Amino acid sequence: MKIKSQKDFWSGLMFMATGIAFAWGATNYTIGEGARMGPGYFPLMLGILLTLIGLFIVFEAMVVETEDGEPIGKFAWKPLLFIIGSNVIFGICIGGLPKLGVPAMGLIVGIYALTFVAALAGEEFKVKEVAVLATVLAVMSYVAFILLLKLQFPVWPSFLTA
């Protein structure tokens, strides 16, 4: 059988690989059942759903005819590195790196860092727009996680609150 849409075929395989990884990882936890779910129930169901979606997309890529076969373009390294990097920076801001002497910077600084670094992944970078977005995200995160959910993690840099 011939692949008729390369983009759909490879994205379907990506969905399947992610789904299988989630489902396999979920087996390390107690699954439970629908009425009494364990910590592995949701990742298992998510993994199964992602795998089924991937199977459907792969099947469609091999059956539905496309005009040019939808070839895959070149790999977008810049957005990938900035998006992954922004998440790593956020994690470092929340927890710090005690072994390297980097203090925890807290939720607010972490959200600003995440937003500004992730914005570098796009084609345009407008400081005012990114600053407004970061401020809205920081306020909403503070309200949701600190005030409403009462989660206990640093909000401000540790050297300011100590």
Describe the protein.
The chain is mainly alpha-helical. The protein has 2 domains: 6-63; 77-161, no CATH class. The chain has helices at 6-26, 41-63, 77-95, 106-119, 127-148, 158-161. It is extended. The N and C termini lie far apart (65 Å). 19% of the residues are buried. The mean pLDDT is 91.
List the helices and strands and how they pair.
Elements: H1 6-26, H2 41-63, H3 77-95, H4 106-119, H5 127-148, H6 158-161
Helix pairs in contact: 1-2, 3-4, 4-5
Structure in a nutshell:
This protein is mostly helical. It contains six helices and no strands. It has two domains: 6-63; 77-161, no CATH class.
- % residues in beta strands: under 5%
- Number of contiguous helices: 6
Q: In which range does the helix fraction lie?
A: 55-70%
Instruction: Kindly report the average pLDDT value.
Output: 91
Radius of gyration: 21 Å
| Overall outline | extended
Order of helices and strands: HHHHHH
Distance between the termini: 65 Å
Structural class: mainly alpha
Summed up, the domain count is 2
Oligomer: single chain
How is the main sheet built? none
* Number of DSSP strand runs: 0
- Low-confidence parts: none
